[in-house]
Amino acid sequence: xxxxxxxxxxxxxxxxxxxxxxxxxxxxxxxxxxxxxxxxxxxxxxxxxxxxxxxxxxxxxxxxxxxxxxxxxxxxxxxxxxxxxxxxxxxxxxxxxxxxxxxxxxxxxxxxxxxxxxxxxxxxxxxxxxxxxxxxxxxxxxxxxxxxxxxxxxxxxxxxxxxxxxxxxxxxxxxxxx
Length: 178
Fold this sequence. Notes:
Belongs to the troponin I family. InterPro entries: Troponin (IPR001978), Troponin_I (IPR050875), Troponin_sf (IPR038077). This is Troponin I, fast skeletal muscle. Pfam families: Troponin. The protein has 178 residues and is mainly α. Among the domains are: 45 residues; 44 residues. The protein is built from six helices and no strands. The radius of gyration is 47 Å and the shape is elongated.
């Protein structure tokens, strides 16, 4: 148990030391990024000095407008390059999958569609046939079964009981039994 305690204590100590090192590295990285940002801004964006006359202000506005246009063109060019490279990457990935022979199957969803809707989706405006399956079914008349005929012949059960009640009914039952 002493070894186990020592191992866990050492592990905890190493873990805390690694976390402290990582925290200092992160602070250094953020400070370096901030310094790089400040250097870039100082290099590319000189401090703005506003002239006093209207003519000089208009010239300054024209210069700023020209700079904005050039930056916008650069942004557009880099965006197009990025789109082109991503498209090339996707094509190369697809070729890789084709060469390996492993295909990603897209997740399929269940769709409830009637036959008419399916034909309309497949054929578009050419679809003119109605696929109402219930309309083509043959109608069948219900035939009377023998049980139903027997029930109709028996008639109302109250009449039977009234006939069998009393002495006359018992006499009929006795005679029917013989």
